[in-house]
């Protein structure tokens, strides 16, 4: 394997959630006083190990609640694991997610500056790229309208255009950013992601669309109830995943 970029060794992540959450502080205090407080442990990730080398394009699949976002958060350094070791240079990681950091009372153009600043772009970078961002999002005409007047597809296009405006980081994490917009925008956004991939980044992609995973990834990790149950070539892992899905639904 080429240079190792991410190494997870027996990584576990546990959350604690209160059962029958109280509706008020008073109710909570009364329950605590009566000894009624019940906390359950959620094993979001359980003893997960893998190594990812430079240039690999790794898809992460699994049903809702299987631990995908938790794994991305650990890799991005948002949370530390409760057990195990995760070797990754967080400074090299860029996490792309959509839909956070927009103010719907501001215009599209103003949101480019707001969301761009949150994404870490400088003012001069944004001045130089604002037109290209609007053009990629196909929003030149609507640039000065408030975002609350946009359709959800328009908001997603703008978010994608901002998130991918800069140079790709060495480790690029895409959390459900593909499959947005209409068919034409999807082709365009997939082409842009391919360009970022070609620039040599190591990429992790979470997507509920097996077609996206099959067409972009070189390897797939399948998480089920926090456990890594399969790690292999996209076709093999996606076929097994789809087979289980069909069995469960029919
Ligand atoms: N902050 C938290 N506190 C308590 N439980 C949490 C927290 N974050 C995640 N969980 C739990 O951990 C488990 C894994 O969640 P996670 O968001 O990683 O799943 P996911 O595979 O990304 O799901 P989805 O496909 O719905 O995005 C779930 O049972 C979830 O309820």
Automatic annotation (TrEMBL):
Pfam families: ABC_tran (PF00005)
InterPro entries cross-referenced by the UniProt entry: AAA+_ATPase (IPR003593), ABC_transporter-like_ATP-bd (IPR003439), ABC_transpr_TagH-like (IPR015860), Bact_Polysacc_Export_ATP-bd (IPR050683), P-loop_NTPase (IPR027417)
One GO MF term: ATP binding
Domain ABC transporter per the UniProt entry, residue ranges: 27-250
Similarity annotation: Belongs to the ABC transporter superfamily.
SMART domains: AAA
The protein's name in its UniProt record: ABC transporter ATP-binding protein
Keyword tags: ATP-binding, Nucleotide-binding, Transport
